[in-house]
């Protein structure tokens, strides 16, 4: 084994057991009492590459099959390292603080608006069959809401939509905007449950196509429409009573927060309500994870609430409610990873084995950020007038009860005849 790797692992692994098989035979690190993981390097060069650039190379070596996990899985390896680096307070440059930055990374510098579509296409314009392998029946690609605890992924994603729509206080005849409409599930739920006319905007051509097909199948062509549109270019002379954005704010970039909320202020009605659902982290990030930036989410950034609030205030908007969901994305990601790995042969048939390992690494590293790094989901309710929402939260739970009744009557999409 490369001496530099031996020295690094000997310094890091104190709790648990890491067995490493490589060019110099087998070495064991750690004092036991925690996770037990065994890895193997297929070539000596891989050992040196990992030491030279751990944040990028750990993921790449796993993708390439040059680092194999022979006992446990890749999540166990990442968690074992993080168990130790957190306990010892080691620098993120040592090995793995970068992956804990989670899912997306900040802009290297100011990214022009016209790069947004390219960045979105990198991830969301993948083959639709891939997402069908691990998402719920409504293709919700954002954090679910596991309330009550222990419910299924499908139930939790439905609970997420219910919870968000309840906070919107939507009423029949209103006009709503969804910024980042995904595959259309939220927009269709909002329209059907609340009698709202919804416009969803996206930068993904694949999501746009599928959203329109799904809305047509549900017979919602007159009340739900989807457009290929950047939020930045929304016309200011058109206003919406309700705005919702779920899992899109992570792609805005911290240098564009002011632009984002200025645009919200332009298009939100004076008595309107917005619900922003986003991943958050407990402190502003110092550095992006280069592996996530390169392979998964180019041009993204996970905000801290402290970075978001000034932009909201400077845009002349008010925050009327904030809810923190600390572990719900960890549960969601674990469901996704388990489903994805159960279908890994199908994923490999769509792409290849390298792609499967890349996505396993992405899902495992993202989950670990919530289990080990205090990442969370925040739901921020935003208004222009304080009187736009009640002064207590009882209305949320009352509306959720009404929405549950609606869900009992709603016909599932797969039961609708074409």
From TrEMBL:
Gene Ontology terms: biological process: lipid biosynthetic process; methylation
One Pfam family named in its UniProt record: DUF7884
Keywords recorded for this protein, A-Z: Lipid metabolism, Methyltransferase, S-adenosyl-L-methionine, Transferase
The keyword Membrane belongs to this UniProt entry's keyword annotation: no
Superkingdom field: Bacteria
Record carries keyword Cytoplasm: no
InterPro entries per UniProt: CFA/CMAS, CMAS, DUF7884, SAM-dependent_MTases_sf
Record-annotated DUF7884 domain positions: 24-83
GO molecular function: methyltransferase activity
SUPFAM superfamilies: S-adenosyl-L-methionine-dependent methyltransferases
Gene3D superfamilies: Vaccinia Virus protein VP39
PANTHER family: CYCLOPROPANE-FATTY-ACYL-PHOSPHOLIPID SYNTHASE (PTHR43667:SF1)
Record-stated family: Belongs to the CFA/CMAS family.
Name assigned to this protein: Cyclopropane-fatty-acyl-phospholipid synthase
Species of provenance: Xaviernesmea oryzae
């Amino acid at each position: 084994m490369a001496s530099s790797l031996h020295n690094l692992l000997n310094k890091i692994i104190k709790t648990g057991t890491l067995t490493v098989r490589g060019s110099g035979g087998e070495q064991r690190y750690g004092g036991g009492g925690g996770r037990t993981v065994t890895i193997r390097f297929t070539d000596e060069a891989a050992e040196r590459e990992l030491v030279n650039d751990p944040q990028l190379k750990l993921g790449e070596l796993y993708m390439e099959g040059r680092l194999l996990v022979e006992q446990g899985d890749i999540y166990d390896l990442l968690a074992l390292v993080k168990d130790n680096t957190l306990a010892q307070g080691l620098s993120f440059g040592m090995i793995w603080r970068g992956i804990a930055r989670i899912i997306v990374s900040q802009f290297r510098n100011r990214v022009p608006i016209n790069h947004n579509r390219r960045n979105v296409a990198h991830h969301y314009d993948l083959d639709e069959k891939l997402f069908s392998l691990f998402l719920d029946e409504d293709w919700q690609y954002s954090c679910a809401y596991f309330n009550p605890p222990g419910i299924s992924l499908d139930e939790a994603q439905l609970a997420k939509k219910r919870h968000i729509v309840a906070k919107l206080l939507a009423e029949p005849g209103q006009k709503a905007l969804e910024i980042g409409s995904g595959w259309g599930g939220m927009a269709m739920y909002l329209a059907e449950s609340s009698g709202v006319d919804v416009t969803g905007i996206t930068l993904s051509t694949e999501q746009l196509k599928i959203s329109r097909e799904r809305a047509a199948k549900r017979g919602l062509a007159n009340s739900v429409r989807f457009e290929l549109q950047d939020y930045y270019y929304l016309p200011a002379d058109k206003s919406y009573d309700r705005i919702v954005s779920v899992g899109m704010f992570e792609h805005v970039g911290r240098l564009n927060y002011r632009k984002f909320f200025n645009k919200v202020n332009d298009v939100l009605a004076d008595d309107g309500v917005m619900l922003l659902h986003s991943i958050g982290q407990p402190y502003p990030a110092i550095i992006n994870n280069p592996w996530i930036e390169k392979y998964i989410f180019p041009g993204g950034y996970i905000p801290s609430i402290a970075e978001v609030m000034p932009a909201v205030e400077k845009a002349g908007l008010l925050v009327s409610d904030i809810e923190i969901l600390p572990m719900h994305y960890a549960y969601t990601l674990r469901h996704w990873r388990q489903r994805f790995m159960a279908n890994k042969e199908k994923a490999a048939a769509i792409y290849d084995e390298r792609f499967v390992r890349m996505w396993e690494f992405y899902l495992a590293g993202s989950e670990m950020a919530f289990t080990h790094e205090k990442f969370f989901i925040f739901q921020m309710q935003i208004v222009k007038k304080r009187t736009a929402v009640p002064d207590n939260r009882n209305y949320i739970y009352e509306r959720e009860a009404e929405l549950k009744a609606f869900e009992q009557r709603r016909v599932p999409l797969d039961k609708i005849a074409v």
